[in-house]
Design brief:
The chain has about 400 residues and is an alpha/beta fold. It has 11 helices and 14 strands. The strands form 2 sheets. Strands 1-9-8-7-6-4-5-3-2-14-13-12 form a 12-stranded mixed β-sheet, with helices on both faces. It comes from Fibroporia radiculosa.
Length: about 400
């Protein structure tokens, strides 16, 4: 059964996949981590690197690759934001991108997909002491700016997963009627970072299984870039990072209290006094009312990572909030008649994307003009941020991910 609360005029069709009453959020989440998805939803990408004004690097993975097929200039584009330490290789990303970018004649939507890989994630180098966080939106802002400039005739749609869903929500709320994205979809968004962090920290099982697993992922990810971070000798991050990497047992809030509150975004507002100050600032549940494009939010009631949900959806007429009884965190698995285990949640997501990409009536965009200043793309009136494409491109095989990291977390 799917419980749907709709506070907008968007119609969301209900799905009721066959799931046993014994299915739990823990099992769904565990399968998202340990399941073998290497033989399904294969996606390949062309990677482009963007350099930001602060010297950071973002990786854009575009599918289908240019050598596979050429799409029309007005083909809708699905811009994807991954989870905490993920990237374009994640199975939950490919579960949506594979059918969304399959040609129409083969049963797909025929869209273009672009995954925005955060600094240091999925093989993207770290070239500045600034990293990323759930609340920092300037990297997605400049990525969307670049994509809009490169594909001026295409309709842009956004989808975010977990931490990426929080970033997308905040971006759309901050942009309001000026958004370059025509619609958005947030999957397994953590919403109230403070309350959900408290739930993770205050329950023994959740603290020792989920909180510490996510912290280990962050430890391993930053360890890969320790030598790059060590070159920023005037920044406190290298010394702090050494202490964090030596810790044998660290929780997510402890990692955020040591690293993210300092390096998770630009100054101001970073650094924050504590992780809890960062959580209060970076939450997205209170900004839903500021969104001004059609927006679908999907969460599962039995998600062990996100346990506090904004059921009222901010009272926004632009937001459709769907809550399923089961699905875990980034799970929503069912077994097909052929015996394959796949994410059934992609069915409503693809329906939403098709409606947003093809049926949605969109008026003239009220967006800021794009300008070029010394080779950097910027928005008029917002000249503190910008980006430029830099040399170096790669071909990425989507099933090849970051070894050693727990997928889906």
């Amino acid at each position: 059964m799917v419980v749907v609360q709709v506070s907008s005029t968007v119609v969301f069709h209900e799905y009721a996949p066959e799931m046993t009453s014994k299915t739990s959020g823990h099992l769904q989440t565990a399968y998202a981590v340990v399941g073998d998805f290497s033989k399904i939803d294969k996606v390949e990408y062309d990677r482009t690197f963007l350099r930001t004004l602060d010297g950071g690097t973002i990786g854009l993975d575009v599918t289908p690759p240019a050598n596979e097929r050429i799409l029309r200039d007005d083909t809708p584009i699905l811009i994807v934001l991954h989870g905490l330490t993920g990237g374009s290789h994640e199975s939950y990303v490919r579960a949506v991108l594979a059918p969304a970018c399959t040609p129409v004649e083969n049963g797909g939507l025929g869209y273009r997909g672009i995954v925005v890989n955060s600094r240091g994630c999925a093989g993207v180098p770290v070239t500045s002491p600034q990293l990323y966080s759930a609340g920092h939106t300037d990297d997605i802002r400049v990525a969307v700016l670049y994509i809009a400039k490169r594909y001026p005739e295409a309709r842009l749609l956004g989808i975010g997963f977990s931490l990426g869903a929080n970033i997308l929500t905040r971006y759309l709320a901050e942009e309001g009627k000026h958004s370059r994205l025509a619609a958005g979809c947030a999957v397994a968004c953590p919403w109230d970072l403070t309350k959900n962090a408290e739930q993770l920290e205050n329950k023994w099982f959740h603290r020792n299984i989920y909180s510490k697993a996510m912290a280990r992922n962050l430890q391993r990810l930053t360890a890969r870039h320790a030598s790059s971070l060590a070159t920023f000798v005037e920044n406190p991050l290298p010394q702090i990072l050494n202490k964090v990497l030596q810790s044998k047992s660290i929780t997510l809030s402890q990692f955020d209290g040591a690293i993210t509150r300092i390096a998770g975004g630009s100054s101001p507002p970073f650094p924050f006094e504590t992780a809890w100050d960062y959580y209060a600032w970076g939450s997205s549940h209170e900004v839903l009312a500021n969104i001004r494009v059609p927006f679908l939010a999907l969460n599962s009631e039995d998600d062990p990572v996100v346990q506090v949900l904004p059921y009222e959806a901010g009272g926004s007429p632009w937001v459709a909030f769907a809550i399923t009884e089961r699905g875990g965190h980034l799970g929503w698995f069912e077994q097909s008649r052929e015996g394959q285990i796949r994410r059934w949640v992609r069915k409503p997501v693809l329906e939403w994307l098709r409606a947003a990409g093809e049926d949605l009536a969109v008026g003239d965009e009220d967006v800021r003009p794009i300008i070029d200043v010394d080779g950097f793309l910027r928005e008029s009136g917002r000249e503190g941020i910008g980006c430029q494409m830099i040399e170096g491109s790669e071909h990425i095989i989507g099933v090849e991910g970051e070894g050693g990291l727990l997928a889906g977390l």
